[in-house]
């Protein structure tokens, strides 16, 4: 009895001590806070009360450091224009931000004021629930509404909820030095393309870099393949039920991907490698080519990890496949990634003003040109062609521009067209296909099943 | 003083703060999780529909979910049958060394103070198929390179080994403390009676440290049920979902798919499974290890 009583007393003592500790701490900070407030008020009555904006960006890592520098500059200018404003930067890796962090925050209602967001399907869903700020009046006021090349992914019911930061395209980067040494040429027909892959393989090199730990990386290739076999417009029909994943032309694309994996055209063990290793394999010379987005061109600039390859990297579009459907020059091109703003910003006029000046400073012709020149991000706004020609000196960027000019149509990445569950299932299935646990037909069936469920909801 | 404590209201008042916190941070979230698990809430919209047990039948009918349950099972199996014997072995060895005991203790404890992210990246280097330490060492014995994190049959092993490496040291220190707390005279008496080192370890030390070992097993099971971080850092549940545990399954199919109702269903299922396993363990094993007093 005595023992338990002592125990109880100790417990009570500890608990009350802890609670009192918490209590007094709180009041102390509060008191301090208000003290400071009054102090500043009395000393400098004109100085604006400090306020904060939280900015979630995804410019983390070496490949994005130029983009980050541009963002930092915009942040600085915006802070200068808005008295009392501090913009708090919060960097999160893009895929994590898109698929986990931001989705969690949207659910909890704890949304950053400014955040990196993908247009379709993400921003449209958030906007539909009133979580995002309607930017239409701001764009009208700033007069930049017609300056964007495509606001489609961020538009819902005629209102704009986000602004793309840049455009991107996907194609094949190749090692020019190696190609010259071996007498290889950029393929212009499908037969030449497959022969090239076989020749590089026979030469003892990995034809295509591979890093498929994150499934969207191999899916860039699959997406390009089915845009040739089934046509660039085909994927638009999945969500409406007009097109099926089990279509023979789709299965053909999956089978081709599988065939290339089996022939050893991708780096062995690709399923265990992070996306960053895709670039490492290419830069180290281990892989002769890599299928990647134009956003990667920034690594082939001074200070980038591909610095030693400056002037030795080329870019080409995947050739037309025999018997393919639709426009055979189509490339994945989109403006699906950019910034969105929390609807709560509208409740505070100062925050709204700050957001306005952030948009004004970030979305200018000069910033777009800087993004292109310093960072290889294609413009998302209409930029005077003469200005681009005058500014772009980088041979790789010029080559990319030429390739883009040679295409007659484009298609958005499939993940902007299908529901999130379909993307998740396809991601699992493509890894199974690469790992040899499924067949192209079974893959198509599994994805179609989820597509049907998602369409039915 | 005694009089005041006999008054039930005093008890209630003192309990109140703790109770409020407990209700706020445990009971309330648990109830809302159960509530949402019966809805089709997408995590963003303000409206939702009650769909009964649909989420539960969906989860329980999904092969991928059972695969993730099985992977949690591997975690438990690995910690109880491979990790725990190793922990005891290491503890016995360290307890019996004369020199540098502090050094060994610190060395084995080291991994548990590192963050899982660091460990995940460190081991990714070790498992790197071409230049990684693991394959270099295996290469000495003429074993062909193993694609540890790329192949389904090895990926789970790779994670289990890393996880064991991370936590062994922590438990070793716990068990070691128990061994060192055993009065020396017991061992001395046994050795005077002619018991060998091995006999002393099995007949004297081991039975006396059983209560602590039981706690270690208990903690390992709880840890195995909620494992997620190490999987996320090392494989993200891949390749093709083969290393998904229940928690990462929840992230993949609920959060990334805008299906919060379904996510809560998985959370409730994890809770139920963990409760069942710990209960079984308590009933079957833990009761047996009696309290020891010297």
Features:
heterodimer, A: 457 residues, D-Maltodextrin-Binding Protein, domain 2, 2 domains, 6-stranded mixed sheet, 5-stranded mixed sheet, B: 294 residues, mainly alpha, MetI-like fold, 13 helices, flat
What does this 3D model show about the protein?
Chain A is α/β, with parallel strands linked by helices and 457 residues long. Chain A is 49% helix and 13% strand. In chain A, the strands form 3 sheets. In chain A, strands 7, 8, 9, 10, 11 and 13 form a 6-stranded mixed beta sheet that branches. A 5-stranded mixed beta sheet of chain A has the order 2-1-3-12-6. Chain A has a two-stranded antiparallel sheet with strand order 4-5. In chain A, α8 crosses α9 (248-262). The radius of gyration of chain A is 26 Å and the shape is globular. Chain B is an all-alpha fold. Chain B contains 13 helices and no strands. The A-B interface holds A 5, 8, 12, 15-16, 19, 99-100, 103-104, 106-107, 125-126, 128-129, 131, 212-215, 268-273, 420-421, 423-424, 428-429, 431-432, 434-435, 437 and B 5, 14, 17-18, 42-46, 64, 127, 129, 147-152, 155, 235-236, 238-241, 251-253, 255-260.
